[in-house]
Design a protein that fits this description.
This protein is α/β, with parallel strands linked by helices. Helix content is 29%, strand content 29%. It is elongated. Bound molecules: adenosine-5'-triphosphate. It comes from Hylemonella gracilis ATCC 19624.
Length: 375
């Protein structure tokens, strides 16, 4: 463990052989013995989390997210396979080594888990007292930490008088007290409103960038992953559904579980359009418009170029609906366009390949009767 009194703002990430803050799972399995029989919460999980990254874990309820997170500080023991922290199999640690591991792996929680009878100062000081730091060291470190999380003026306040966001800031300061290289976040923003969530995410990103701490977070809020994670793991029934860079997984989700989780983030069809969409062109003679969907998956820096799209498609092409997001600088999303039903369409394969591509995918998703020229 690093000395508890190291100045917070000057702590660089280590450059040892295995960089401090690395986590690896090797064929990890976890089975609980419940009264109804064995529950296979995790099965054959193998992957590494790079030091200094922000790693998100998502999945439906019961997919095994908490079980996986809790194996990293040995709150849960694997039933099979191994968990390596900085290259060391943590199953082999004795009691003293386990205490040291838990100082290197901080944790924050959805409901903050602060001691209500203690002040903010005392809550943050507690891990340092347990670690045997001197009063002078504790004082210096707690004041540094409270400054880091922006709560210098709340040192003597009890948690009940703090907002949710302030309580989580205390939780973060306490988790950082022992100078960890890894921070586990279990639904850390789920109890917060969107604005406060943003400020906590900014704080976590700042901690990751400035201190080089690996952050591993569970969340059911896909927007949180999109906002700050570098990589994401999707769990489904205790197994890896997929994992990779967030912009790739979110841009082109390969697994049905990922697509279901991401559905709220997608720009779906507006209800009125969905209700009018026909799978085939209407009978001859009826005016209609084709609905095209242009998809952007975040790959190769492709962005919607409105002028070139207009040039490539028939005159009178209209924008109906859609939008794009940016994830780590990569554009993903979709645009819905309508064109006259009789207008000839270009070869889409030429518009989705090579350096001149207009979109990653283009398809006709249906037809709409053009009764009132409304699309
Ligand atoms: N101590 C336990 N004893 C028995 N079964 C357990 C125990 N802890 C978890 N489980 C079961 O293991 C499976 C995975 O649970 P886990 O809490 O890891 O999932 P999760 O993805 O974090 O779910 P949630 O999003 O609902 O918190 C679930 O079926 C759960 O009921």
């Amino acid at each position: 463990m690093n000395a508890p009194h190291s100045p917070i703002h000057l702590q660089p990430a280590s450059c040892a052989h295995v960089r401090a803050g690395t986590v690896a799972f090797e064929h990890l399995g976890k089975t609980y013995q419940a009264s109804s029989g064995p529950v296979h919460a995790l099965q054959d999980i193998s992957l590494s989390i790079p030091a200094g990254s922000i790693f998100g874990i998502i999945g439906r309820s019961g997919a095994g997210k908490s079980s996986l997170l809790r194996t990293i500080n040995r709150l849960e023991r694997p039933s099979s396979g191994r968990v390596l922290v900085d290259g060391v199999d943590i199953a082999s640690l004795n009691e003293d080594e386990l205490v040291r591991l838990r100082r290197r792996v901080g944790m924050i929680f959805q409901h903050f888990n602060l001691l209500s009878a203690k002040t903010v100062y005392e809550n943050v000081a507690l891990p340092l007292r347990v670690a045997g730091a001197s009063r002078v060291e504790i004082d210096r470190r707690v004041r540094d930490l409270l400054a880091l999380v922006g709560l210098q003026d709340k040192a003597n306040v009890r948690p009940a008088r703090l907002s949710g966001g302030q309580k989580q800031r205390v939780g973060i300061a306490r988790a950082l007290a022992t100078d960890p290289q890894i921070l586990l976040c279990d639904e850390a923003t789920s109890a917060l409103d969107p604005e406060t969530t943003q400020s906590i995410l900014q704080l976590l990103r700042g901690i990751n960038r400035r201190l080089g701490i690996t952050i591993i977070l569970i969340t059911h809020e896909m927007s949180v992953i999109r906002e700050i994670a570098d990589q994401v793991l999707v769990l489904e029934q205790g197994r890896i559904a997929e994992f990779g860079e967030v912009w790739q997984v979110f841009g082109a989700p390969a697994h049905v579980a990922t697509r279901a989780l991401l559905a709220p983030l997608q720009h779906g069809l507006p209800d009125d359009l969905q209700g009018r969409l026909l799978p085939h062109p209407p009978a001859e003679g009826l005016a209609h418009r084709k609905i095209l969907r242009l998809g952007y998956t975040g790959a190769n820096a492709l962005e919607p170029d409105i002028a070139r799209i207009a040039q490539a498609l028939p005159a009178g092409t209209r924008l109906v609906h859609g939008g794009v997001d940016r994830i780590q600088g990569h554009v993903h999303g979709r645009l819905l366009l309508s064109v006259a039903g009789t207008a000839p369409l270009p070869d889409f394969s030429l518009l989705t390949q090579g350096p001149q591509a207009l979109a990653h995918s283009i398809e006709v998703i249906g037809h709409v009767l053009d009764l009132e020229h409304s699309l």
